[in-house]
């Protein structure tokens, strides 16, 4: 096994400007460490990204071997600070786009409407391919009320598990753009012993065709800081918005800094849909 990443192939992709360095590593041979991930994600001295997606066969990674019969590929996701995360909704779509463009998905998986199942640390996820990619994410569990502190102000919110921990906090119209997310919001370490992504959300009055509700969101992601988008955060927001309204089904359009995603909830099903693009490929120096 190599002791360096020099010469390794990489790609760069994003989903609504939530961006990732993609490392194809089918046999799990790359010597990936927290320090190397952080260096790759550094926006001045590295490639720059919100996280790293390692593309490894499920059978070759101890975190996914049990899922190998159902999914050939495992999304080994690392945050920008080098910590390992359970789930990433935008990352899944970028991962799927890479599989098809790199010819790693079997048969006609790259054609519109085809479905691909991948393994993650939160279980199997299946995506439907097209100009946008729609992924069955599973409905987030709402875990009760808590809150966040930001700039000395308290924001009540709802804790949610979307495969990873979230706190969804509504804010009044007009306040969202002015929030200072250069530092992490304070959250209850008893409720969130491993940290959480914190979403601040406000309703948007303009209707979106095909959506029942329309909101805007900003997010501070653990291990990455404020990002332009967060797919699992959109899932959590949709579940909270519909739950607070007493609804068990509906489509929520969520405007993030990098674009728009939709989350469609129907009982125990939640489908996250949005764009995913590969913008560059190369070799690490």
CATH topology of the largest domain: Diaminopimelate Epimerase, Chain A, domain 1
Would you count the extended β strands for me? 18
Strand content: 35-45%
**Fraction of residues in helix:** 10-25%
**Which architecture of the largest domain does the CATH hierarchy give at level 2?**
Roll
The largest sheet, given as strand count, sense and whether it forms a barrel, is:
13 strands, mixed
Overall geometric form: globular
Description:
12% of the residues lie in helices and 42% in strands. The protein is mainly β and 285 residues long. It has two domains: 9-137 and 275-283, Roll (Diaminopimelate Epimerase, Chain A, domain 1), CATH 3.10.310; 141-267, Diaminopimelate Epimerase, Chain A, domain 1 (Roll), CATH 3.10.310.10. The strands form two sheets. Strands 5, 6, 7, 8, 9, 10, 11, 12, 13, 14, 15, 16 and 17 form a 13-stranded mixed β-sheet that branches. The chain has a five-stranded mixed β-sheet with strand order 4-3-2-1-18. The longest helix has 14 residues, at 231-244. It is globular.
Supply the key terms.
285 residues; DAP_epimerase_AS; 3 helices; lysine biosynthesis; Diaminopimelate Epimerase, Chain A, domain 1; amino-acid biosynthesis; 5-stranded mixed β-sheet; single chain; 2 domains; mainly beta; globular; 18 strands; 13-stranded mixed β-sheet
């Amino acid at each position: 096994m190599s002791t360096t990443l020099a010469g390794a192939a990489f790609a760069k992709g994003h989903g609504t400007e939530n961006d990732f360095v993609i490392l194809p590593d089918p046999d799990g041979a790359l010597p990936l460490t927290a320090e190397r991930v952080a260096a790759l994600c550094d926006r001045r001295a590295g490639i720059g990204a919100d996280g790293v997606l390692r593309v490894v066969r499920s059978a070759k990674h101890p975190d996914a071997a049990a899922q190998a019969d159902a999914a050939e590929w495992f999304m080994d996701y690392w945050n920008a600070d080098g910590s390992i995360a359970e789930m990433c909704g935008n990352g899944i779509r970028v991962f799927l786009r890479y599989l098809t463009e790199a010819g790693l998905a079997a048969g006609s998986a790259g054609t519109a409407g085809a479905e691909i199942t991948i393994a993650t640390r939160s279980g199997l996820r299946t995506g439907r391919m097209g100009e946008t990619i729609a992924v069955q994410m599973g409905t987030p569990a709402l875990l009760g009320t808590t809150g966040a502190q930001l700039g000395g102000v308290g924001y009540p919110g709802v804790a949610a598990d979307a495969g990873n921990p979230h706190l969804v906090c509504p804010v009044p119209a007009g306040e969202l753009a002015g929030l200072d997310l250069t530092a992490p919001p304070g959250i209850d370490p008893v409720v969130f012993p491993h940290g959480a992504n914190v979403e601040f959300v406000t309703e948007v009055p303009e209707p979106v065709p095909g959506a029942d509700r329309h909101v805007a969101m900003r997010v501070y992601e653990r291990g990455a800081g404020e990002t332009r988008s967060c797919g699992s955060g959109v899932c959590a927001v949709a579940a909270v918005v519909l739950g607070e309204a007493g609804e068990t089904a509906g489509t929520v359009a969520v405007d993030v800094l990098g674009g728009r995603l939709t989350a469609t909830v129907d009982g125990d099903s939640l489908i996250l849909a949005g764009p995913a693009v590969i913008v560059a490929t190369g070799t690490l120096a």
